[in-house]
Amino acid sequence: MPDPLHVGLLYGGQSAEHEVSVRSARNVRRALGDRYRVTPIYIDRHGRWLLSDDDHLASGDVPGTLAMFVPHTDDFTVRSSQLQREGVEVVFPVLHGTGGEDGTIQGFLHTLGLPYVGPDVLASAACMDKVVAKRLLEAAGLPTTPFAVVRAHERDRASFEALADRLGSVVFVKPANSGSSVGVTRVDAADGFGAALDEAFLYDKTVLVETGVVGREIEVAVLGNEQPEASVPGEIVSTSAFYDYDAKYEDPDASRMEVPADLPDEVAARVRRMAVDAYVALGCEGMGRVDFFVTDGSDVLVNEINTIPGFTERSMYPVMWAETGRSHEQLVDDLIRLALDRHARDAARKTTR
Fold it and tell me: How far is the C-alpha of 62 from the C-alpha of 283, rounded, in Å?
C-alpha cells in the first residue's frame, strides 16, 4: 500500500483573522482524518513559521521549539526549503485575510514548486482587493453593489454628503483589502463618517464606500478548476445592524444560517449561475465563496468572492457543500485533488522557448 499523501496544513498568520484561521484549521484537520499524513504549520502573529502537531492545533497552544524558519532573516531562503525536506507534497492554506488570501503565500508556494489548495496568485490578489474585483465583475457584465473609492491621500477631500448623493443615505465603509468584516462600519449620518474612514484606514490605504443595500445576504460555495460547480445557496440571517465579525464568529445568537436558502427556484438557479460566472471572471480555481445581495424585487448583486472561506463550525462554505451532498471529508479530498491536478497541468506548460 502506498504511503499516504503528505499535506502541509498552513494556518495562523499575521492578519486580523488569525483566530478564525486557527478555528478553521482545526476543522480541516478533523476532515483530513487519517487518510493523509498531516503536518500542521503555524504562522504566529510575528510572522514566525513553526512546525506544529495535532495536540497543539487542538489545544490552541503555540508550539515554541519547533521553528521551521523565520522570514526576514539571512537564512530565510535556505531554511524555507525545509518545506520540501519535510516531504510535504501539497499545502492546504487555511490563512484568512492579508498574507493568506492576497496572493503572497500563493506566490511563495509557487516559487517552491509546491501544489496548494485554492486560487492562484492573480485570482487571489484580484479577489482580495475589493476595488479590483468589482471592476473585473463589472467588465464581465455582472451587477455589483454601487461603490466609490477613497484613497489615503484623498482622505481630507472625502465628503459624506457628496458620496450619499451618489450612493444613498446609508453606506458601508470598508478597507479594500480585508475580510470577516474587519474594519467595516455602517454609516447613516455625516458625523460618523470620519471615524468610519479612520477605522478602515487602519487596515488598508484604499477604502471602499458602498451603498447600503436593503436585501438578503445570500452565499454560494463554488468548487472546481476548469469546470466549477456551485452548491445550493445559503442565507445569513443576522439580528445585528450588519453581519460583522462578532455576528460571524463570537455571538451565536447574533446570526443564523439557513441552508438551503428559501428562494424561488428561478432566483436560486440564477444565483448559482452567477456564482460560477463571477468565479470564472476573476480567474478562480480550487474553491471560492461568492456573496450576494438579493433584493425584494429579486435583483441579484454580487458583493464579493472569498478565496479561502472559513471552515469553522459557523462557516457557510462546508455547510453549503454538506447540504449539496458533499461531506466535509469528501470536500477536502476534492480540494486536494484539484490542487494536484492544477499543479500537474501548469507544470506541463513551457516556460522557455
Answer: 35
Q: CA end-to-end span of the chain, whole Å?
A: 40
The residues that are catalytic are: 17, 180, 249, 289, 291, 304, 306, 310
DSSP state of 4: P
Contacts of the segment 121-127: beta carbons below 8 A, 24+ positions apart? 122/283, 123/282, 123/283, 123/284, 123/285, 123/307, 124/307, 126/282, 126/283, 127/101, 127/282, 127/284, 127/288, 127/304, 127/305, 127/306, 127/307
Tens digit of each residue's pLDDT, the chain (353 residues): 678 999 999 999 988 889 999 999 999 999 999 999 999 998 888 888 888 888 888 876 665 544 455 454 444 443 455 566 678 999 999 999 889 999 999 999 999 899 999 999 999 999 999 999 999 999 999 999 999 999 999 998 999 999 999 999 999 999 988 765 788 999 999 999 999 999 999 989 999 999 999 999 999 999 999 999 999 999 999 776 654 555 554 555 667 899 999 999 999 999 999 999 999 999 999 999 999 999 998 899 999 999 999 999 889 999 999 999 999 999 999 999 999 999 999 999 878 87
| Backbone angles phi and psi of 292, in degrees to 5 | -130, 160
3-class DSSP state for residue 181?
coil
pTM for the structure as a whole: 0.88
Domains defined along the chain, listed by start: 6-116 (3.40.50.20), 126-143+213-341 (3.30.470.20), 147-211 (3.30.1490.20)
**Positive or negative torsion for Cα 255, 25, 175, 166:** negative
* φ, ψ for residue 273, nearest 5 deg: -65, -45
CA separation (Å) from 189 to 42, 201, 320? 42, 19, 37
As a whole number of angstroms, the distance between CA 321 and CA 336 comes to 16
**Order of all β-strands in the sheet with 37-43:** 67-69, 49-51, 37-43, 6-12, 90-94
**CA dist., res. 246 & res. 254, Å (int):** 8
Distance CA 316, CA 310 (A): 7
3-state class of 300 per DSSP?
strand
